[in-house]
Write a structure and sequence with these properties.
single chain; mainly alpha; 13 helices; flat
Amino acid sequence: MKTSGLSPADAQKSADRIRTLREELRDPEIAEALALTPEQTARFDAWATSSLTALSRQFDIDTCASQKRMSWGMRIASTLGALAICAAVVLFFLRFWGYLDSWAQAAIVFIAPFAALAGTEYTAQRERARYFTGLMALVALTCFVLNLQVVGEIFNIAATENALLAWGLFGILLAYRYGLRFILFIALFLLVSYGAAFFAARLGYQWMDFGDRPEIAALLGVAVFVLSLRLRHERNSDFPAVYRLVGSLVLLLSLLSLAEWGRGSFLPGQTKNIELFYEFAGLLISAGLISLGIVRDWIGVVNTGAVFFAILLFCRLYHWLWEWIPKYLFFAIIGLVGILLVAALKRLRVQYPAEVAA
């Protein structure tokens, strides 16, 4: 099997397909239907073993179900470890910072990001699974955030939205350099925050109040989602899913915010009417994302759309019924709606099987 040109994500998908096919061929009914000869079965087993060995040797991927379960545990442990180290760095700054001279403070905040970045590069050169690389990259990003924050305080520089841009771009560089989806997720949110703050400031608002104008963020969420369709990721084939997830999350969170607090909208009219408009718009858009995700086989988009559809529908029913009907009847209606949603999703799943997904 040719492994050159494959990304780690593509290699894992290939290994999963080979492993699944091998397990299916061991089923007596499938074996009887295919009527493979012992020689053909032996050749396939030999090819599957050699292919999985080659993929595992080059990419350090999971070749069996137990390894996949262990990998998830390692990802969780490395993420928690990275968050703990980041918390330790922040608490260290808070605990000892006031005892240091200005030159020592400047030296520490200047050296810390480079030291963490060097550690990230060192681990990336010596491991293929990128667990420790992701840990060090998150520490490097945290140190860079503290760097700009502390430098601004030392030299009394006014805070601007440009810090969000610098943090986001640094995160993008880390994500693409080392193929880290979690860092890309954080970096995209930072860049969306910068965009919302930038346009809010240009419209005459305080840049730190960009959260009070969710419609700007909603448009940026759409832009991020569209980028997943336009950008080509030959090396990091699992990155478009992150773009879609961030885009759909930003869009639906903004719609949910507008549905509950419509006074932050640019639209004219009464607040209640604006909230009602965005509640129905959120329901329609989340339902559209569910349908699109099923058609295109985008599991993350389907799950995100389903979660927000349920939240928006619950909010709508709460506004309609909470004050008018007994509480037990309200929750009974919520349960019935949940059952109907499951039935509708099940029907969509049958209507758009994975085999015909684009």
